[in-house]
Amino acid sequence: MDARFERLQELLQRAQRGDKAAYGTFLSEVCPLIKQKIQLTLGDLLDSDDIAQECLIGIHRSLATYDPSKPLKPWILGVTRHKIADYFRVLARRGETELRETDFPVTNQESSTNPETEGPQRDALRSALQHLPQDQRRALELTKISGLSCREASLKEGIKEAAFRKRISRAYETLRKRVEKDLESNFGE
Amino acid sequence: MANDRNKLIETLVADLKPVQPHRPPWVRTGIWFILVVVSTVMISYAVQDFRPNFWDHLVQFPRFNIELISGTAWTLTLFYVIFASNVPGEKVSASANRLGTILLAVFVGSIVAGFVIESPEASRTGARPLCDLEVLIYGSGALAGFLFLLRKGILGSSNWDRWRIGLSTGLISALTMQLACMYDPWHALLFHYGPTLILALLGGYAIHLMKKYQSQKARLTRLDN
Questions:
Q1: In contact, A135 and A66? CB cutoff 8 Å
Q2: Residue range B59-78: average pLDDT?
Q3: Of A31, A87, B105, B179, which is least packed with CB atoms within 10 Å of its CB?
C-alpha cells in the first residue's frame, strides 16, 4: 500500500480514538488529495473546493463506519463519490427549476491560478464532456466554456429555455453516473 | 478559500469525539435479522398459537418450503444491502446481487406456483381474525427499529434503501404469518404479502420525511454557525 495512505490510515485510527491533533493532520492532508482527484476527473466543471469541504464533513459524519482492518482508499473514494453525486443532483435539479448564471462559474475565466494544473484540468473537463451525447455536451459547452447564459444558449440552439435547462439537467445526470464509475483511478498518485 | 477550509477543519476537530468503529455489515445484518425474526415470532405466538398443521405443511410440501426459505433468504440479502450501503466504499459484489435477484425470482415464482401446483390444501384452520393488521403492526415495530438505527447513522438511506427497509420489515412478519395463520394462496397474497407493500410505501415515506427534517435541521445549524 502507498506509504501516504498508510500514514493517513494510522492518523484516522488515532482520530477514531479521539486524538484531535491526529484528526486535524488527517483532514489537512486528505483535503488536497480529494480536491486534486475531483479536478483531475472533472476539471473546472465543479467547484472542487466546495466539494472537498463537503467531503470533509462527510468523513466526519462517517468516522465510525471506517473499519481499521480495511484499506483507507476505497473508503475515502466512497465518501467523495457520494458527495460528487449529491452535487450533481443539486445541479441537475437547479437546471430544471431555478438555474441562475451565477451558480455556474464561467470556465474561460480560469479560476485556477496554478499553471501546472490548468492544462490537466481543462483536458479533464473536455474529456468528461466528450462522453456526453451531442446535445447534452453542446449545452454544457455553451454555458460552461463559451460562457453564454441559458437564455442566450437556448436562443442559439433554437429551443425553448425550459427545454435547454432540461438538457443541462440530463447532462449533469449523465456525468454523475459516469463519474461514479471513473473515480477509482489515479487517486492520490 | 483556504481560510474557509482551515476554519472548517478546526470546527470538525473541535467536534471530534471518540467513536467505536461499526461492526462489519454482515455482523450487523446477522444480529438485526435474529432480533427481528425472534421478536416477531415470539409476539405473534403470544397473540395466538401458530396454525396446528404448519410443520406438516413444511415437511410435506417442498413448494411451500421453498417459498419460505427463498423469502427469508431474500430478506436477509435486503438487510445486508441496507447495512452495507452505509459504509463508504463498501460494494455489494456482483455475485451477491445475482444471488438476490435469483432469490427474488424463486420467491415470487413459488408464490405464483402456489396457485397451480401441489400445495397445502386451503383451509381456515388456524385463521387469525386480524392477520393483515398483525403484519402491519409487527412490521411497523421493526420499521421503528430501523428508523432508530438510521437516526444513529448506522444504515444507508438512498432512495432504494428506503424501499428496501420498508419491504424487508414487512416481509419478516408476512413470512411468519404464513406459518401462524390459515393457509390459502389468495389469503396469503392479499392479507399477508399485501400489507408488505403498504409497509414498503410507509417506510419509504417515513424515511423521506425523516431525512428532510434532518437536512433542514442541519441547514439551520450551519446558518447559526
A1: no
A2: 91
A3: B105
Identify the contact set of chain B against chain A, taking CB-CB distances under 8 A: 1, 4-5, 8-10, 12-22, 24, 86-90, 153
B165, B143 Cβ separation under 8 angstroms: yes
Q: What is the domain count for chain B?
A: 1
Nearest CA in chain B to A111: B1
Out of A16, A23, A52, whose CB is closest to B21? Answer: A16
Closest CB to A28 among B4, B9, B88: B9
Cβ–Cβ below 8 Å for A53 and B88: no
| Distance from C-alpha of A88 to C-alpha of A92, rounded to nearest angstrom | 6
Rounded Cα gap, residues B186 and A133, in angstroms: 48
Contact B16 A49 (CB under 8 A): no
The single-letter code of the amino acid at A131 is H
Give the pLDDT confidence of A22-73 residue by residue, as tens digits: 999 999 999 999 988 888 777 666 678 888 888 999 899 889 999 888 889 8
The C-alpha cell of B82 is what?
A: 441496507
Check if the interface score ipTM surpasses 0.85: no
**Residue entry with cell 396457485:** B115
Query: In Å, how far is B165's CA from the nearest CA of chain A?
Result: 19
The residue ranges of chain A whose pLDDT is under 50 are 96-118
Query: How far apart are alpha carbons B119 and A93 in whole angstroms?
Result: 51
Residues of chain A positioned with their CB less than 8 A from the CB of B10: 24
What global pTM score does this model have?
A: 0.75
Q: What angle do CA A107, A110, A112 make, to 5 degrees?
A: 120
> Does the residue B6 lie in any domain?
no
How many angstroms separate the CA atoms of B201 and B196, rounded? 9
Q: How far apart are the first and last CA of chain A?
A: 12
d(CA B78, CA B83) in angstroms, rounded, equals 9
Distance CA A96, CA A164 (A): 9
DSSP notation for B206-225 = HHHHHHHHHHHHHHHHHHH-
